[in-house]
């Protein structure tokens, strides 16, 4: 199996240890009933770990707010042309939590049509963002990673950085009907790591992707900029998902406001750390 | 209970018949094909379900229940005849059931009903519509037969109709859609895609059919065996080798060089998974498969391997 072969080449000790402790019902081939594969997880996260530790020097604040087990939704801002934020949040859930958790993102539909991307995303639990998937995973007590801005969020231009665009409401109805706590987070640095100055709209349509980002240095490759993730306290809302749009939009507003608060907090932390030149080792802050 | 099995000479038909006999039911069978070494106690009728002698079986033998297995896939028949067998046969069967007051009718459908597509979810529930009509046009008549059988629930409320959408069959008989796909030494797949495949051991499938009858189930149910596995693993454990091809090469090469012949629509079913949720059936019947995924794959692999 491809995953197994690659695992031998790239395996990272910490990732190996963390994946071994993920609480998923793997069978004797290391597969769960969604086809998530232990070998593929080790390979996937071993490739992300160097980016997490060194390239983006990711620091995490408030990881203690994420429930150890049970259904959870981590919800945050989306940014930066390529979903670097998603990859780093997933890595943080694996490497910073005890026991580690597998975050499962809700992926844009085009990804499943692409060879290899389709294969890899299915083996590491990153499924197409369908309400059926989200509900089933939550009912299975999994940890879902949600970016309510969707592709509108990653498609932001640099001049609009950290301004949240419209939030969808589907995640809130789902959280209400499945009784899932929402852990808000702010991802800081994604906008600077890959500043988008324009989009190639026509080409994007031709190859059937939501957008193609163009950076000041043309190619959409993220720069090695330190990133931080600020997790906030879990939020729970009253209801069963059958509320009127007005009520649900109100709840979504609360989550959005909390994410904005975390973004502000994160950006001021970052400013101070930059001034002191100690972004790698600055003090802890409460989120 | 007196049970009539249509398509009894098929591999799964034989297994259903034997299981029914074991449980001391009376078994009648209709098939155009012979079953020479049928166990004693099974009354066989060699006829076509749409022909007059078939109706006479209903009239004279008055079965309590009917298991309808006489449907075919693209593998064995051309479109027109397939249409006639799948739709014409199912229609005739329900008409006889109504006319001769059969109490239970069981239609054996397929889980591919839901179709495979990049945008379809894992674990389809019975409430979902049949995507296969668009993703796999060669399955359209089976989908129609499935829906037609389900409509008997409201058209003939006096009959306890049950539609079982069963995952791919796998086992020593090596018959069925998936078994045919895996037949050769090299199994063509599409490069960059490795969908989950869901299958059930043929003996488990036969038992599920019998238990659905005995529990007198009504409604539409997905029937699943063990948990699904990626296609690459299925190929490996069944002792074949994986031949990943880019899409254009795949379309050109299938049906040649010992590779299986597949209709155009099958490509989607090799790129994307069809995985169904069988929990409703398990809750209604307490059914649990006897064979896990490894045993099921091995059961297919280890029999008189010519390759």
Largest sheet of chain B: 7 strands, parallel
Calculate Rg of chain B over CA atoms: 19 Å
CATH topology of one domain in chain B: Rossmann fold
CATH class of chain A: Alpha Beta
The SSE string of chain B, one letter per element, is EHEEHEHEHHEEHEEEHEEHEHHHH
Summed up, the domain count of chain A is 1
Overview of this structure, please?
The complex is a heterodimer of chains A (287) and B (307). Chain A has one domain: Glycerol-3-phosphate (1)-acyltransferase, CATH 3.40.1130. The longest helix of chain A is centred in the last third of the chain and has 32 residues, at 245-276. Chain A has helices spanning 2-10, 13-21, 38-55, 84-95, 117-123, 131-139, 151-154, 170-178, 190-193, 201-206, 245-276, and strands at 59-61, 72-76, 103-107, 127-128, 143-146, 182-188, 198-199, 213-214, 228-231. Chain A is α/β, with parallel strands linked by helices and 287 residues long. The mean pLDDT of chain A is 89. Chain A is globular, with a radius of gyration of 18 Å. Chain A has a seven-stranded mixed beta sheet with strand order 1-9-6-2-5-3-4, with helices on both faces. A two-stranded antiparallel ribbon of chain A has the order 7-8. Helices cover 41% and strands 12% of the residues of chain A. Chain B has 307 residues and is α/β, with parallel strands linked by helices. Chain B has a domain at 2-170 and 201-225 and 274-290: NAD(P)-binding Rossmann-like Domain (Rossmann fold). Chain B has helices at 11-22, 52-61, 79-99, 132-135, 140-155, 177-181, 202-214, 231-237, 247-253, 266-271, 279-285, 293-301; strands at 2-6, 26-30, 42-45, 65-68, 104-110, 160-166, 168-170, 186-190, 196-197, 199-201, 219-223, 229-230, 241-245. In chain B, 50% of the residues are buried. The mean pLDDT of chain B is 91. The chains are: A alpha/beta (287), B alpha/beta (307).
